[in-house]
Amino acid sequence: MNKEKFNHSIDNIDIPLEKLVAREKTAMLQAKKRKKMGRTTRHSLLIACGLCMTLLGSGFVSTGMAEALSNIPLIGPIYAKFSDIASDKIQQDQLTTEIEKQDSQNGLTMTVKEAVYDGGRLIVTVEYTGQKKLSLTEETVGINDLTINGQSVKPAIASTGQDAIDSKTIIEHHQLTLSNHNEYGDKIEVAVHGENLFGYKGKWNVAFPLEKVDGVIHEFYPKVKTKTTDKDYAITVDKVTFSPLSTRIDLTIDYPAKMDENDTWPWFEFAVVDDKGQVYDRLKLQAGMAGDYGHHMVLVLPPMDEMPHSFIIKPAEINNKGYREEIKELELVVPLNKEK
């Protein structure tokens, strides 16, 4: 399929965003009670902060994955369509590296189209083409795995999403926010593995080197903290990182130790407001966890050409009726005036 036809077919994908948001919130409430939330991409279904949600062939994907699929200029409209957190920046600055490496087995071809990496996020786009019809049903979709330097990755945020372009073509998008910025350095070896995919039997593997995209990285260590009057809960902003693919906020969440033991630790929902009043939530914010039990949380906003002077972080809880209730005691102003 040529690029023009490919992009035209992508324009016809319909994504029910309101349903996606509602479904993700419900799943997040359930997932917060998992002691050790899995953070692996060894599924062809959405995985975001340890959640697995079934992707429907109509383009039903999570908001996190939706944001992941919006990243690549070579494949154009699909990334804007799925609203990746860095979609505008990637397309504007042509940040991705064209890979075009493939592996063909038993009538199915896996082609890594392009990828981009900035030390904190990795995005990889894969195309599958088959000699016969490809299926996105759960029984036949198979499993896949993305590795860095030959090892499985334990990211803070990850998603894998798929959608059918036509009956014999499926596009797949991987996005990972790493647990720690620059933990793999400037040059990495990425590999996409697949097994028994879309009704085809076999194993596929495409490996390729990838260098960190050019761009300035700014790091701030504000170390500001707030806590509730009963001192049961506290939030510390450890680091804010501005990089080509995201604006990242690393938080430490403190809560009573017994919550680790009985698995009732809190998963707060966050909104972030900059000094100009711009609100980042829903599709403009991803949240994930590095490590276990939600002590090290990571918030990811879109990349910013102009850095704000401060952020306001607004944590909230979801009540038993599914509504967001802000926790004013834990609201936190984060000055960005001491770059390191």
Q: Do you know the CATH architecture of the largest domain?
A: Sandwich
Q: Could you state the order of secondary-structure elements as H and E?
A: HHEEHHHEEEEEEEEEEEEEHEEEEEEE
The residue ranges in which pLDDT falls below 50 over 5 or more consecutive positions are: 1-74
The percent range for strand residues is 35-45%
Helical proportion? Answer: 10-25%
Domain module tally? 2
CATH topology of the largest domain: Immunoglobulin-like
The named CATH superfamily of the largest domain: bacillus anthracis domain
- CATH class of the largest domain equals Mainly Beta
Radius of gyration: 20 Å
Q: What is the count of helical runs?
A: 6
Mean pLDDT: 79
What does it look like?
The chain has two domains: 209 residues, bacillus anthracis domain (Immunoglobulin-like), CATH 2.60.40.1630; 118 residues, Sandwich (Immunoglobulin-like), CATH 2.60.40.1640. The protein is globular. Helices cover 13% and strands 41% of the residues. The strands form five sheets. Strands 12, 13, 14, 15, 18 and 19 form a six-stranded antiparallel sheet that branches. A five-stranded antiparallel sheet has the order 3-4-5-9-8. With 340 residues, the chain is mainly beta.
